[in-house]
Amino acid sequence: MPQSVQPVTEAIQRGEKHKAIELIKQALSVDPNDIDMLLVLATLAEEPSRKRQVLNRILSLEPTNQAARGMLLEMDRLEMRAVHSPPKPAPEPEPAVPPTPQSPLLAAKPSETVIEKPLVFRYSSIGLVVLYLFTIVFCCGGLLIASQNMANSLPSLGLALLFGLTALSVSSKVDVSESGVRSSTLLGSTHIKWSEIASLKSNAMKRKLELISGTGRSVSISTQVKNYSRAIEILRQKRPDLFGEPGVSSPQVKPSAQGYEESPSTIGDHQPAFTTTRTFRKSFIKQYGLLFALIPMCLLFVWLGLASAETRVAFFVTAGVCALLMLIPFFQVSGIKVEPNKLTIQTFFEEKEFSAGQIQEIKMGSVHGRYGRVTNFVNILPVEGKNYPLNGFSEGDELIYGFLMNWWKGSQNR
Questions:
Q1: In 3D, which of 337, 330, 334 has the Cα closest to residue 353?
Q2: What is the dihedral of CA 112, 113, 118, 122, to 10 degrees?
Q3: What is the DSSP letter of 123?
Q4: Residue 203 Cα distances to 234, 290, 369, 372, angstroms
Q5: What is the distance between the alpha carbons of residues 74 and 111, in angstroms, rounded to a whole number?
Q6: How many CA atoms lie within 13 A of 389 on its CB side?
Q7: How far is CA 101 from CA 79, 90, 105, 412, in A?
């Protein structure tokens, strides 16, 4: 045991937790990168988010620290067990010890809290406000023009109608419940049971994911709803077989405070190992389509620079910017191959292989653009090295995310 940690350890053994925390704060004020003190602080932290923050801080300083990795792995296992296990019935309180539901330790156990209402995912309010605003503006403009000339008002009224119908169609919500998924708009609603889902179809143009039944009936989930990644994770937990995990039937899932809980038969050591091999490759147009616009622009600015001595510098600088932008597709991920024992990530310049242990996290991220539009992508975060964002694959980000998560979780449980 390091000498600097011994006073803290002695204070903990005496039950003087507050004094131990004060000693840790004093040590970290002198050396914020004291890994030994940070490890003790992580051990004492009761809030899971705070504990995870401290452990990530340790790994940022020392990526190979086995103690921090072990604690993080144990937290992940406990969280998976809490998410996947059915809630235990609350024990009868003893007369001498009244229950304390306000305790932060009890609040940190989501598996003990069950919600009966479905989880609701709604469309971005900013996007809706913009659509309704455009509808009102074009409608008012069309009516104003119609008071003078009816024929001239038709374009504005047509745009108002278009924006209005679009706003109505996307004013949707998705209800995820024990029975299945229900998608509702102002124009109607559709419902599909978990057991009825036969396949998934990602429609990037319409920004929606279709859950298709064996009879061809489908329910659409807008990719623009808030917490879309959470909805996809619930779908993966409920129907892992849709994402390439063999031999898994639809597990029993119950709603909880932070998502859905699977039966213990699908987690931990009982989770079947991932045995599927699948290759995802981005199309040539998706990967290099930007070059068809940038190359002519670059050549045009070079020609304009050669033709005009007065503005030559400006045109050459613009051509240089275009040339730099042309390099972007060559560094983006063009393909991935998921195999039982490894993941291969391909770019134009490299082909890198990772085992499950070399991956720190796989998650779905979101980028909010103008007018509330959301672009979702899959992000692979290795333990060491750069991140690999995935976007633009024809199979859809949701399917790729599910395959990668099933591979990662299954390989970890081998």
A1: 337
A2: -120
A3: B
A4: 19, 21, 19, 19
A5: 16
A6: 12
A7: 20, 11, 9, 35
| Among the ranges given (25-29, 121-125, 384-388), the one the predictor scored with the smallest mean pLDDT | 121-125
Lowest pLDDT segment from 74-83, 148-157, 321-330, 381-390: 74-83
Place of tokens 């994911």: 209
d(CA 78, CA 55): 16
The encoded tokens of residue 321 equal: 């910017």
Instruction: Give Cβ neighbours of residue 337 (< 8 Å, ≥ 6 apart).
Output: 277, 278, 279, 280, 343, 344, 346
Per-residue pLDDT tens over the stretch 347-399 = 998 899 998 888 888 988 877 766 566 788 899 999 888 899 988 888 888 88
Q: Which two tokens stand for residue 36?
A: 């030994």
Contact call for residues 405 and 209 (beta carbons, < 8 A): no
Q: Tokens 């996290």 label which residue?
A: 361
Provide the mean pLDDT of the chain.
Answer: 76
Distance of CA 143 to CAs 17, 133, 138, 152, Å? 71, 15, 8, 10
Q: Are 20 and 39 in contact (CB under 8 A)?
A: no
For residue 177, CA distances in Å to 36, 135, 143, 185, 252 come to 45, 34, 44, 17, 12
Predicted model pTM: 0.57
* Cβ(169)–Cβ(140) below 8 Å: no
- Residue 365, C-beta contacts closer than 8 angstroms, at least 6 positions apart: 229, 376, 377, 378, 379, 389
* Bridge partners, residue 180, by sequence: 193
Continuous H helices in 211-310: 228-238, 284-307
User: Which pLDDT score, from 0 to 100, does residue 114 have?
Assistant: 33
Could you give the domains of the chain? 3-80 (1.25.40.10), 119-267 (no CATH), 278-412 (2.30.29)
